[in-house]
Design brief:
single chain; Alpha-D-Glucose-1,6-Bisphosphate, Chain A, domain 4; 9-stranded antiparallel β-sheet
Length: 187
């Protein structure tokens, strides 16, 4: 089936790519984010996990736009429930305040020794999920890979249009926060 590129956004040291693949009954919205950061892989993985599970403690997470509603019950583990609250800016109407929406995800895989996690949406308007992994590039540098897909039916085009603008914005902020480092952030 045909695939359409929706966004190719260049980060300082990486990229954000979104594409849509038509299937018989719906479309699949694929996304792939890759960025290199000047922090050890283990530190970056820990910060990403905190961003998804206890955002207030993560110095890379842009909590003004997205934060975990509450830490998972029983701590972070495979199968735990993660709730994220989103405040996506109205890019089409900057004067209109963002509305909040909270969605739940399950950590389908959580392998801290492998610097890997996978999450699946439970009640997000687009069903799907992603795999996040961090690989060491050197002792003090790492590469973040964030790749996934969401199923979209035609009635959800407004959600897709929002994601097309939000993903580059979000990952720019994560990359900027990672470049700034923990000592310079007031968290």
């Amino acid at each position: 089936m045909p695939t359409e590129t929706l966004v190719e956004h260049q980060l300082m040291r990486g990229f954000v790519r979104l594409s849509r693949e038509q299937t018989e009954n719906a479309a699949l919205l694929h996304f792939h984010v890759e960025m290199e950061v000047e922090h050890p892989a283990k530190v970056m993985f820990e910060q990403l996990v905190l961003g998804l599970t206890d955002s207030e403690k993560s110095w890379i997470w842009p909590i003004e736009y997205e934060n975990s509603a509450e830490p998972p019950e029983g701590g972070v583990h495979e199968g735990c429930l993660v709730k994220m609250t989103y405040r996506v800016p109205r890019f089409d109407k900057p004067d209109v305040p963002a509305k909040s929406a909270t969605y739940s995800y399950t950590l389908a895989q959580y392998k801290p020794d492998d610097l890997l996690l996978e999450y699946q949406s439970i009640d997000h308007p687009l069903s799907g999920g992603a795999v996040v992994r961090v690989e060491p590039v050197s002792v003090n540098n790492s590469r973040i890979h964030w790749q996934g897909a969401y199923r979209q039916d035609p009635s959800q085009e407004i959600v897709v249009q929002s994601i097309i603008r939000y993903f580059p914005f979000l990952y720019d902020l994560i990359e900027q926060n990672a470049a700034t480092g923990p000592s310079d952030l007031n968290r």
